[in-house]
Amino acid sequence: MYIVVIGWLYVTALMALTESSVVAGTLSFLFYGLLPMALLLWLFGGPGRRRRAAGRSRAGAAEPDR
Description:
mainly alpha
């Protein structure tokens, strides 16, 4: 999964470098690269977050109260 993110960010970085101004390049990288990849990682990371939360709640239930 991370190789896809790295590849896409590389492509969008090259796209941003070919823009006519720094502002256009920055906005292109932000809106075509960083934001979509952050959303993708957040959406596909949901099951892992739920597993970690369930593991923490089970581990917390197994510990005795002090």
